[in-house]
Amino acid sequence: MLSFKELSRRDFLKICTIVTATMGLPATMIDKVSAALRGKKPTVVWLQFMECTGCTESLLRADHPPLGRFLLEIVNLEYHETLMPAAGKQAEEVLHDVVKREKGKYICVVEGAVSKKDGGVYCQIGGKPAIEILKEVGNKAALVIAMGTCASFGGLQAAHPNPTGAVGVWDVILRDKVINIPGCPPNPYNFLATVGYILTFGKLPELDDYRRPKFAYGRLIHDHCERRGHFDSGRFAERFGDEGHRKGYCLYKLGCKGPATYSNCPSKRFCGVDVWPVSAGHPCIGCTEPNFWDNLTPIYKPIGETEE
Amino acid sequence: MGKKITVDPITRIEGHLRIDVEVEGGKVVNAWASAQMWRGVEVILKGRDPREAWAFTQRICGVCTTVHAIASVRCVENALGMEIPLNAQYVRNIILCAHGMHDHMVHFYHLSALDWVDILSALKADPKKTAELAQSISDWEGNSVTYFENIQKTLKKFVESGQIGPFRNGYWGHPQMKLPPEVNLLAVAHYLTALDYQYKADQVVAILGGKNPHIQTVTVGGIALAINPDSPDAFNMERIAYIRELLLAVKEFTQKVYLNDVIAIGCLYKDWFGIGRGVTNYLAVPDLPLDTKGTRFDLPGGTIFNGDLKSYTPIKSFNDPYFRDNVAESVAHSWYEDVGVRHPWKGETIPNYTGFNYNGKYSWAKAPRFKGEPMQVGPLAQVLMGIASNHPLTMKWVNYAINKAKTLGVNLGVDDLHSTMGRHLARAIRAAMLADLALKHLELLEKNIAKGDYSIWNEVKFPKREIRGFGFHEAPRGTLSHWIVIKNGKIKNYQCVVPSTWNVSPRCEKGKLGPYEASLIDNPVVEPEKPLEVLRTIHSFDPCIACAVHIMDTRGKEIKRVKVL
Questions:
Q1: What ipTM describes this predicted complex?
Q2: What percent of chain B has pLDDT over 90?
Q3: Chain B residues 172-201 with a CB less than 8 Å from chain A
Q4: Which of A22, A57, B41, B460 has its CA 20 to 30 A from that of B52?
């Protein structure tokens, strides 16, 4: 259960100022987020663009916190097209009201890429191109969290030759304002713990060069994979179902992209049942990395041989 | 001249959907369903390795996760004429069942229930009466007075906070909301509890799939899930036992809570068994193959035309020409260049956005047709195939539902299923079937492993010559098919005809309305500013619009021209 500490306002702001100065962030951003926390749940607006809804679905696979508690007690998620009863005009009214009422104070979560080509006709909601909605709602937010690889880096639709000119959020919104939580979809705890971090510590988590929180993306999969001992000792599976595969040997020769992928899959695993693709027997495909659909494919070709 | 109402965005679905209806005399007289997004993945698969198509196509949809991966590997296996090991079939089958239960349950409670249930009214309910009511419908152990009291307290605190999250501006107090406060409280409570049970179903999929959403153990030739009861790092007895416990818990909730809730709410809204009929041609494909070739199945498939169960024609195998030869797509009213009606192996996709035109092109979705007819797909289609073929497990749960409705004072017949509420009921019936089938296939897997069969994968080798294949899968939203042409071991063409494409289909070249559109005709609309009834009918189909939009180019053509008006 997440909670946030009742610091004195002076101490709280002191921490915020030191941290924001260290990180080179505009001091006003954190002020705006923290101001929203005075006894109330922070307002969140969740936008969905060129996406598959897998990132939203990943929240249904979390139990700390579970989605019920997240919605009822932790955040005030006022706009989310998959969940909200209001539709059409009723939904548009909510979005306009929130953006106006909470201008500069809400957290905007984006799922999906936006299209830059041809006036954005490839994705429209309520008759407006996705990119226009992102600009308006994202620019007025205190902070934008790009949820998933599509929102972070463009994702599937941006794979060669990117027919719709799909891009990630940080190609539209000022980068300093964006946190990327990539993955296809990401481990939901990467998102939930980032929100928890901000609400509890009153600052942004440390980010890498791709604006990904280091607590989730700070280590190569290869460097904390349980099969690393097999890699180091030269024990490999050569085909699915062979003796090495059954013994749980390294999947490098089957195409594993763990050596090129920053993520916490081996340590955090998925769905509370202690699995990730490698533990089940299939190589990592590198889904937290920018342009992995092109840079880290073919999936089954060992990484030493993958073309750039 | 009627009044035109546009609802955009339709919420509580997957994807971007716009619905237009023309209302006259309080009823819908015309309707248009428009898919509002196209991702242009069409050229992306061209030239890539068919063995990894499953990873790309799975990202068509994360609500319908797993299904595009399964259909994809099947179409490549079909092109290669190959069989896969029994263990691989069983693992894919358990994934189908577990994912299906998660998906159907979430659809009813979290995507649809708020069309019928008034959250604010639940605050006025008497928890004691709610418990009595709940216990009269179901013997589920969770329906205690304390349970309902606690939920009501939580709801009260939530509403009083003034920050009610996504539940703002809902249709509370709409004249079409007819449930008494106790039923509203019951539904709200189960909405929250269902979140815990759908999670357990997700966990089953994750154990078998390596992660969820977007599994990563289905692969061309079988599965990548290493099986070895004597290895610490493979699928072993502990994993099997874990799956079993989870499935037993999900079965309880699915059969005792979800199904009974749908029956009860359906009976209280029994008028809605007479609304939303629409297209009564149905298509389902058989699934849960029991052999390595795909000739015997545990879920029935076939076609029914004009609502006449006697017209039932089965689809018999993964190679059945009856299915293979009769699927085609029209783009007459879709934002693509007119290339005529095309079979998926010969289709072309050249996007051409020309704006919304009621009498012309108005959707990114193509119009699939079977023998030239629009077809409704989904759980209702599969349940009707089961009734038509006297499939024992289908009949078990259909009869259960009919008998339960009778105890609640409503006489339901098969004909009532052709409706908005019928679709919800059929989905719950299918979920109850999947609960039984999941455990059956787990046992089949276990017994096969016990025989000493640990095989999971057959070698895949592509010839240089051109080969074609198709793969089908009965997904939670209905019939899914992938179609592939491979040359020199690389993808030359790829096409998906997705269940929601069949259902969200715009008019075809013959002007026949698609299922969503046809089902809206004659729907009441009591308050045009708040067209709740439109949402009810659309949601009954369980729309998935990321799926629906035809996104695979079959010829890898670059986009030639896009007009923006």
A1: 0.93
A2: 86
A3: 192, 195-196, 198-199
A4: A57
